[in-house]
Amino acid sequence: MRILMVGAGLSGAVIGRKLAEAGHDITVVDARAHVAGNCHTERDSATGVMVHVYGPHIFHTDDEEVWNYVTGFETFKAYKNRVKTTSKGQVFSLPINLHTINQFYGKTMRPDEARDFISEVADTSIEDPQTFEEQALRFVGPDLYEAFFKGYTMKQWGMHPSELPASILKRLPVRFNYDDNYFFHKFQGMPENGYTAMVERILDHPRISVHLNTAFERAEKDQWDHVFYSGPLDGWFDYALGRLGYRTLDFERFTYEGDYQGCAVMNYGEEDVPYTRITEHKHFSPWESHDGSVLYREFSRACTADDIPYYPIRQVREKALLADYVARAEKETGVTFVGRLGTYRYLDMDVTIREALDTADAFLAQGQDTPAFVKAPL
Ligand SMILES: Cc1cc2nc3c(=O)[nH]c(=O)nc-3n(C[C@H](O)[C@H](O)[C@H](O)COP(=O)(O)OP(=O)(O)OC[C@H]3O[C@@H](n4cnc5c(N)ncnc54)[C@H](O)[C@@H]3O)c2cc1C
Q: Which class of enzymes does this protein belong to (predicted)?
C-alpha cells in the first residue's frame, strides 16, 4: 500500500520503518526543516556542542525491546540524569534524597532517622490527597514543598498546586538514601551522535521517502491508502471545536566560555526567578570535550496558536474537549492518530516508540481497518 506518515518524529519514523520493512511504500512529510520532531539535536557550529534544540531529552526505559530497537540504530553512551536545584541561596540535589534533607535541615540523619523526621513534618492528617499541594504536604511537609515544589510547579503549569491533580506527583517524591539518579529505569543513555542521526537511520530505507518543509493538508488524505497522523488532533479538524490547551516553552539561548554551572540541569524553584531551569547542553554528552558552552534558560507559559505545543494540560475542560474530538476522530476512516500530539498525551520517547511498534503491528494485522486510535487518548 501507499502510506503517508504525517510527521518525521519518533512516531512517524518508527511506524514508517516497520511498514516499509513489511513491503509497503512509505512517504513521510514534516512541516519542519529536519527530522526527529521535538527530539531534534544539532551541533552548534561555533562550539561543537550537541544542542537539544527543543529542550533536553534523556533516554530511559525498562522496555528491553525498545532499548534493543534504539541501540540497533545508534550507539548509546551511559548517562545518568543528575539534577540540581537552586533554592534559598543554596544548591540542593534532586530528587529529594537523604543529602537534600540533611543539607536543608542542617542535620546528619541516617535513613531511618530521616524517615521518622519526615513523617513528623509531613501533614499526615491528609488521608486521601486530591491535589498536587495536598500530595506534597502529605509526603514531605510544608518546608520542602515550598522550597522544591510550589514555585517550580506554579511556573511550569501557570497554576497554583492546589488547582492541579495529585496524580502529577504520583509516587513518594523522597528517597531515604543518597541515590540522586533522576530515573529508576534499567536502561538509561544518550545517543552518541544525537537523536536526529538516529532518526535519520531509522528513516534510511529504500521504501521510505522523506519530504521536509512540507505541511500536510487534510484534503490530501484520499491520495493515500492510509495516513498515520502525528500532528495535533484538534488541528486535523481545523480547531473547529476550539483548541486543546498546552503549555509552551521559550528557550533563551546563551553561550559561555568554559563551564557555566557544572551540571546539565539546574532547576530554580523560587517564584521570583522567572525561568524554571537552565540547561547546559555539553553536559548531556559528558564523553565529549568543548571549551565553549551553549545554555538554555527555560520559561514556561500558555501556548497560543503561533507557539509549539509542548505539554498537554489535560485538566477537566481539556478532557471534555478531547472527548469531543475523539468522538469525531473515531468516525474518520483511512487515518490513525498517533504520538504525543495525535493523542494529546505526554509521552516519553520510549513509550512513543513502544506505541509506534504496536501501532505498526496493528496495521499489519488489520490493514485499512486499523481504527483511528490504536492507543486510546482518554
Ligand atoms: C520539553 C520536553 C522535554 C522532553 N524530554 C524528554 C526526555 O528527557 N525523555 C523522554 O523520553 N522524552 C522526553 N520528551 C518527550 C519526547 O519529546 C516525545 O516522546 C517525542 O517527541 C514524541 O514524538 P512524536 O513523533 O510523537 O512527536 P513530535 O516529536 O512532536 O513529532 C511530530 C512531528 O509532526 C510534525 N507535524 C505536525 N503537524 C504536521 C503537519 N500538518 N504537516 C507536516 N508535519 C507535521 C511536526 O513538525 C513534528 O516534527 C520531552 C518532551 C518535551 C516537550
A: isomerase
